[in-house]
Write a structure and sequence with these properties.
Helix content of chain A: 55-70%
Strand order of the largest sheet of chain B: 6-7-8-3-9-10
Strand content of chain A: 15-25%
CATH superfamily of chain B: P-loop containing nucleotide triphosphate hydrolases
Shape of chain B: globular
Largest sheet of chain B: 6 strands, mixed
Number of domains of chain A: 2
Number of strands of chain A: 10
Structural class of chain A: alpha+beta
Largest sheet of chain A: 6 strands, mixed, barrel
Distance between the termini of chain B: 21 Å
Number of helices of chain B: 7
Distance between the termini of chain A: 37 Å
CATH class of chain B: Alpha Beta
Number of domains of chain B: 1
Strand content of chain B: 25-35%
CATH architecture of chain B: 3-Layer(aba) Sandwich
Helix content of chain B: 25-40%
Largest interface: A-B, 32 and 38 residues
Oligomer: heterodimer
Chain lengths: 379, 221
């Protein structure tokens, strides 16, 4: 029964790999090791923005909504609409603030009313001595306020609010805690939004701070889109934060990219060396095939096919081990697990096949140059 | 009618004259033995007849084609179509079974045919060992696989390089029996050998010395 030439070709290649497995183990391991590092680093490369984005969020809000132009405040409706543009899975917190001046012991201070649970999310770096306000008529005062008023956690104080008509009202508060940030927040008195509204009446928001786990470029795009869609609202990236994030991410990614390229080159050298050794070891076999009438192209095709299969197999193993490697790094460095990127395996296999193919071109060419007469020298 | 005609062939490697003005004709169906001490030019002669090398001068007509004038690719095709090679060291591919080793020659020649390859193995008495790897076969069995591989494409010329050089007496007998049978069936055989016993089986023996045909002996049968 005749067999298709292609079928027999595949059989030769498969037999060469399967029945010479011990000799090819080194080559597979070289490819798999390279592929594991490349796939691991690639996973980390693409996951760094996500992982680091979460880390960066501990440095505060990276997007602000403010009234555009001459407007004094944002309506709750506008702020709500703008917040809908933020990707739900990336939102860490959205804190809307109202500000007004109050007096404590005749000293003027800026009072801020906000949903304090959200403030804790957008400003996780705030250090609070004492505690956050939990009940009504409790306030968190900045260190600067505490220094001037000599208030401490548990102290009672009276905040005097004067409206636009000049009518003053007194409101009793208890200090729940003292805030230390090293920034301007230390000059503020923070209270819950209901307490603020009880004092100043209902009104719009002066500013909305958003903490969104997205890279700087995405924040810029998001801000531009919101500005387009909601007139009267100005969305502004906090560039001090987003640009620092971008610089750090770019450098980290460049480092990972460089290491990936070096590993790919090392893998190529390793595969090329292994294949050259295989050609040297199999000179007689190659000579025999040529003596039997194999054209050089056929010898090249056999060697390259073996290499490509090796690359595929090594790439598959490397892809799996690479993900485990990345998972280990992520768990140890970022303390979070990685999600398995679906395209990782096909990418790693394709990269391994390409690298192995390129690395095998020279050995395959050298195989084609083996003289058939070698089989007649009775060595 | 001659299958091979060598006319004034010389082969020079640098300052070494491996063959010097060799003339030789081989009839279709003839069994010729080439003998000679080491360095006499036997391997060079085999390489040239086997289309694996070209002479420095002279003509080598194989089945009417002057192989001295052919390119490397054409020589590969002539080798594939007209010559069956048998080696002292068998040269089987160690990761292919006996059957697959025979089919490799078919694959490079035309189409692999398992049934025909099995018949070729049966012809050398190895049908039962067709699925064994070379490492599982004795030296004699490996040489028989090598012979089956050489015969599978019905070559015009069988070229054997010390075919019994690595075999014991029993296996040498088995291989020579196969050669006798092939000769009876009309195959043209050229055997390079050191062994006078093997040479005695041929119809004609030529002895090479210092790259020249020093002696020619016709064996009486």
């Amino acid at each position: 029964m005749t067999m298709k030439r292609e079928t027999f070709f595949l059989k030769i290649v498969a037999c060469s790999l399967l029945r010479r497995h011990s000799k090819l183990l080194t080559a597979i391991l070289a490819v798999a090791a390279g592929a594991a590092i490349v796939s691991g680093l690639t996973t980390i490369y693409y996951d760094i923005p996500r992982q680091m984005g979460r880390e960066f969020r501990s440095y505060g809000a990276n997007l602000l909504f403010a009234p555009a132009g001459d407007r004094a405040a944002l309506t709750a409706d506008e702020a709500g609409k703008a917040a809908l543009f933020l990707p739900a899975d990336a939102v860490v917190g959205v804190a809307a603030y109202r500000y007004n001046t109050i007096r404590i012991n005749e000293q003027p201070f800026m009072a801020a009313g906000a949903a304090l649970a959200e403030v804790q999310k957008t400003s996780p770096y705030w250090l609070v001595r004492g505690g956050w306000p939990r009940a009504g008529q409790e306030a968190l005062i900045g260190q600067e306020v505490a220094d001037i008023t000599r208030l401490v956690p548990g102290s009672a104080f009276t905040a005097v609010f004067t409206d636009r008509q000049g009518k003053s009202s007194e409101h009793a508060f208890t200090v729940s805690g003292v805030l230390q940030t090293g920034g301007t927040e230390e000059a503020f008195v923070f209270m819950s939004l209901p307490d603020f509204e009880n004092m100043a009446g209902a009104g719009g928001f002066d500013i909305v701070e958003c903490s969104v786990s997205l890279p700087g470029a995405d924040i810029e795009k998001l801000a531009a889109r919101i500005n387009e869609e909601i007139p009267g609202l100005a969305a502004r990236p906090v560039r001090r934060v987003t640009e620092s994030e971008t610089v750090v991410l770019t450098r980290l990614q460049a480092l990972v990219y460089l290491v990936t390229v070096v590993v790919l080159l090392l893998t190529m050298i390793s595969v090329a060396t292994t294949m050259l050794a295989a050609v040297a070891e199999r000179r007689r076999e190659i000579g025999l095939k040529k003596a039997l009438g194999a054209p050089s192209a056929s010898i090249v095709a056999e060697f390259l096919s073996e290499s490509l299969l090796l690359g595929g197999l090594g790439g598959l193993l490397g892809g799996i081990f690479g993900f485990l490697f990345a998972q280990m790094i992520s768990a140890n460095v970022f303390g979070r697990p990685l999600s398995f990127p679906l395209l990782l395996l096909p990418f790693t296999v394709a990269a391994s096949v390409l690298v192995t193919g390129a690395a095998s071109a020279l050995p395959a060419k050298s195989a084609a140059r083996v003289e058939p007469a070698i089989v007649l020298r009775g060595e | 009618m001659h299958i091979l005609e060598i006319e004034g062939v010389s082969k020079i490697y640098g300052s070494v004259k491996a063959l010097q003005n060799v003339n030789l004709s081989v009839r279709k169906g003839e069994w010729l033995a080439i003998m000679g001490p080491s360095g006499s030019g036997k391997t060079t002669m085999m390489n040239i007849i086997g289309c694996m090398d070209k002479p420095s001068s002279g003509a080598v007509l194989l089945d009417g084609v002057d192989i001295a004038k052919e390119s490397g690719g054409a020589l590969t095709a002539i080798r594939r179509d007209k010559i069956g090679l048998i080696f002292q060291q068998f040269h089987l591919i160690n990761y292919l079974t006996a059957l697959e080793n025979v089919m490799v020659a078919q694959y490079y020649h035309s189409m692999p045919d398992e049934e025909e390859a099995l018949k070729a193995l049966a012809r050398v008495g190895l049908a039962e060992r067709a699925r064994h790897l070379p490492g599982q076969l004795s030296g004699g069995e490996q040489q028989r696989v090598c012979i089956a591989r050489a015969l599978i494409n019905y070559p015009a010329l069988i070229l054997a390089d010390e075919p019994t050089g690595n075999l014991d007496e029993v296996n040498e007998g088995v291989v020579l029996d196969i050669f006798r049978k092939l000769h009876r069936e009309g195959s043209t055989i050229i055997v390079v050998t050191h062994d006078p016993e093997v040479a005695r089986e041929a119809e004609r023996v030529i002895v090479l010395e210092h790259g020249r045909v020093a002696k020619e002996v016709l064996n009486k049968k």
